[in-house]
Amino acid sequence: MKKNVEYDLAIAKLADKTHHFAYELDRAFFEQFDQQLIPDGKLHADVTLIKTDRLLTLNFDITGTVRLTCDRSLDEYDQDVNVHEQLLVRYGDRELELDDNVLQITPDTQTLPLAQHMFDYIGLALPMKKLHPRFQNEPDENPESETKLIFTTRQPGDDDDDDEGTDPRWNALRNLN
Questions:
Q1: If DSSP codes are grouped into helix, strand and coil, which group holds residue 4?
Q2: What local confidence, expressed as pLDDT, does residue 103 receive?
Q3: Are β-strands 76-91 and 102-105 bridged in parallel, bridged antiparallel, or unpaired?
Q4: Do strands 96-99 and 102-105 pair parallel, antiparallel, or not at all (unpaired)?
Q5: What's the pTM value of the predicted model, to 2 decimals?
Q6: CA-to-CA distance for 34 and 6, rounded, in angstroms?
Q7: What is the spatial distance between Cα 128 and Cα 109, in angstroms, rounded to a whole number?
Q8: pLDDT value of residue 102
């Protein structure tokens, strides 16, 4: 990944209050990552930072479209993206990624890079099966795609209230109330 400081937040200079940042994500943004998943896009990212003395809360609202290649026809199409994510950053003695959306940084950290987080949020918002809009309403021709019951212990005609095969000791326990 190429380093682009345009998407870094200078958190050391910010006061303890709410801050708003806006970013335009386009082809130049996606080219800084060594990948072919998203070649191009036109997105707008609103980042709200709530800074306190112990915690940074970043709320990401990313909307727009990305250019994808259809898995079926290999035609390119625009996929709508709408992302709402939250990233929590706390201060600690060393830098760690505690969870997917929780980071720990040292108190002397000057900047917080956001580019990788925004790229990951966009990538996670994409569908697994990328279909051009003209194929999205077609029925799936794969017969195995229908939900099938593979295994059951119930026999046809079994009911939940069937007491014929119940051990008589259970019937005695039911009458204890």
A1: coil
A2: 95
A3: parallel
A4: antiparallel
A5: 0.74
A6: 18
A7: 36
A8: 95
